[in-house]
Structures are given as structure tokens and as C-alpha cells.
């Protein structure tokens, strides 16, 4: 694919992700117009709206996969891996704001997403085993809380750079928001 064609596809996909997060029934014509390309350009690459949606899902999951690999969840020191993961996922959620329902609609996409969740859950078990997270929490609580903090950072802190937002997420996640007692 030529460089300009690749850029057009990337712009169409990121624009499509943003517009689909705002309105799940947005048309290809509206996505093309917002991306600054002709509708025919979109149709040359994506035969249907469903094909475009599948490509958006794939691009988002590819980005998540890159974040998980870069965070080195199984091997890096837990606090370092947690920050890398948080910063990366905040960036992905900003760049690819796809509604969760769209990610669960397709069984293949859902399976891939579940595989990523399993990797994060294994990391959180390691964090608990190494004493960074408190043991004895209800099953799934640590993962659910982390996901919510990441989504909250994206929604409530759109102007804060991803690194600073990750600092806040990790600090809140590990220490809470209550007043810390001093020894």
C-alpha cells in the first residue's frame, strides 16, 4: 500500500472509531467526510460498513496487544509494568474510543479481548503475590477497579497527557484517595 493510501486508511479508521463511539449508526459517508476523504476512497478499502467496523475493532485490538507487549506484564517490575500498561491503555482509549458493545459483538474479537483480559488478570495475581496489591479482595475486583480508573482518566482528564494521567491512575490504584496515615 502506498504511504498516502496507508495514511488515508489510518485516518478513516481513527475517525471511524471516534464517530462510532459517539453514534453507533454513523454512516460511511459521514466518516469519510470527517476524515477528509471521498466516500469512494472508503468503499475502495471497505466494501461495507461492517467491514469498516471490523477493521476498527482489529486496529484497536492491535494497539492493545502492542501495549501489553511493551508493558512486559509477566516480567517487568510490577510497578513499572503497571505504569506502562496504564499509560498505553489511556492512549489506546483516547485514540480508539470504541464502544465496548462493538468489541463484544464479534466472537473472534471477543475471544481476543478476553485473552488480553486474562493476561492482565495474571499480572494482577502476580502483583498480589508480590505484595503490591492487597490479598483477599473479591474475585475480579482489582481488575474491574483498574479498568474503571483507566476509563475515568480518559473521560475526566482529556487534557492531561497520558503519562501524567497514568501517574494519577497508578497512585490512586495503589494508594486510594483516603488520607494516608503517617508512621
Can you describe this structure in just a few lines?
With 183 residues, the chain is an all-alpha fold. It contains 9 helices and no strands. The model has no long low-confidence stretch (mean pLDDT 90).
Structure description:
The structure is a single chain. This protein folds into two domains: 1-47, Arc Repressor Mutant, subunit A (Orthogonal Bundle), CATH 1.10.10; 56-175, Tetracycline Repressor, domain 2 (Orthogonal Bundle), CATH 1.10.357.10. Helix content is 73%, strand content 0%. The chain is elongated, with a radius of gyration of 18 Å. It has helices spanning 3-22, 28-35, 39-45, 49-71, 78-95, 100-104, 107-129, 141-156, 162-175. The longest helix has 23 residues, at 49-71. It is mainly alpha-helical and 183 residues long.
**Span between N and C termini?**
61 Å
SSE arrangement, N to C: HHHHHHHHH
CATH topology of the largest domain: Tetracycline Repressor, domain 2
Total DSSP helices:
9
Task: Give a short account of the largest sheet.
Answer: none
Radius of gyration: 18 Å
Q: Find the count of extended strands (DSSP E, 2+ residues).
A: 0
What's the architecture of the largest domain in CATH terms? Answer: Orthogonal Bundle
Shape: elongated
Query: How would you state the average pLDDT, rounded?
Result: 90
What portion of residues belong to β-strands? Answer: under 5%
The CATH superfamily name of the largest domain is Tetracycline Repressor, domain 2
What is the domain total for the residues?
2
What is the SS-derived class? Answer: mainly alpha
Helix content: over 70%
Regions with little confidence, pLDDT below 50 for 5+ residues = none
CATH class identity of the largest domain: Mainly Alpha
Amino acid at each position: 500500500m502506498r504511504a498516502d493510501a496507508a495514511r488515508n486508511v489510518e485516518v478513516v479508521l481513527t475517525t471511524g472509531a471516534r464517530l462510532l463511539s459517539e453514534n453507533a449508526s454513523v454512516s460511511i459517508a459521514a466518516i469519510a467526510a470527517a476524515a477528509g476523504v471521498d466516500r469512494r476512497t472508503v468503499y475502495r478499502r471497505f466494501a461495507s460498513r461492517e467491514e469498516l467496523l471490523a477493521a476498527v475493532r482489529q486496529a484497536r485490538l492491535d494497539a492493545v496487544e502492542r501495549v501489553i507487549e511493551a508493558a512486559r506484564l509477566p516480567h517487568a517490575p510490577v510497578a513499572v509494568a503497571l505504569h506502562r500498561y496504564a499509560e498505553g491503555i489511556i492512549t489506546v482509549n483516547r485514540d480508539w474510543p470504541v464502544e465496548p458493545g462493538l468489541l463484544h459483538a464479534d466472537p473472534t474479537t471477543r475471544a481476543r479481548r478476553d485473552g488480553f483480559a486474562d493476561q492482565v488478570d495474571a499480572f494482577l495475581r502476580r502483583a498480589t503475590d508480590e505484595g503490591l496489591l492487597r490479598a483477599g479482595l473479591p474475585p475480579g475486583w482489582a481488575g474491574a477497579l483498574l479498568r474503571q480508573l483507566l476509563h475515568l482518566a480518559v473521560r475526566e482528564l482529556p487534557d492531561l497527557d497520558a503519562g501524567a494521567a497514568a501517574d494519577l491512575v497508578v497512585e490512586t490504584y495503589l494508594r486510594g484517595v483516603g488520607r494516608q496515615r503517617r508512621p
